[in-house]
Design goal:
Number of helices: 3
Number of domains: 1
Structural class: alpha+beta
Order of helices and strands: EEEEHEEEHH
CATH architecture: Alpha-Beta Complex
Strand content: 35-45%
Number of strands: 7
Radius of gyration: 15 Å
Helix content: 25-40%
Shape: globular
């Protein structure tokens, strides 16, 4: 089995979150494989920008997920292990990277995003990340 370490971002703008839609019409969050010469947080920031055009910054760690699938092109199973960051941006403007096959990128209110995201694991991740995001915002407000 090929094991790939990845990182990604759950990007909030006020009470909205960024979702991207891939070529399979699945809604998720920007993420990518960590190459040997890059840091996981740098990859998360870069993938958010590259896949959605959103300039975001990291404010905390959301958690980790993993999933397995069979790669037809590689002719073997693949396991993606993803480290997720909570990120924020200043404006809810997003545009999909059509050249990479993304169909849509947009900010949605949290409840709508929970209903829209394709996989239950991502719904749980979003719920947890949103709670942490609110707690982090409370901490920032104290200063």
């Amino acid at each position: 089995m090929l094991i790939r370490d990845c990182s990604g971002g759950i990007v909030f703008c006020a009470n909205q979150v960024l979702l991207i839609q891939n070529e399979k019409e699945e809604w998720s969050f920007p993420k990518g494989v960590i190459r040997e010469d890059h840091e996981d947080d740098d990859i998360a920031i870069w993938r958010v920008k590259d896949e959605s055009g959103v300039e975001a910054r990291i404010i905390g760690l959301a958690g980790k997920t993993s999933y397995e699938f069979y790669s037809v092109t590689r002719k073997r199973p693949v396991a993606n292990r993803i480290k997720w960051y909570i990120m924020v941006c200043d404006t809810p403007d997003a545009s999909p990277n059509l050249q990479q096959g993304f169909l849509d990128a947009k900010f949605l209110p949290i409840e709508e995003a929970i209903q829209t995201v394709t996989y239950s694991q991502d719904r749980s991740l979003l719920t947890l990340a949103y709670q942490k995001y609110k707690e982090l915002n409370e901490d920032f407000d104290e200063f």
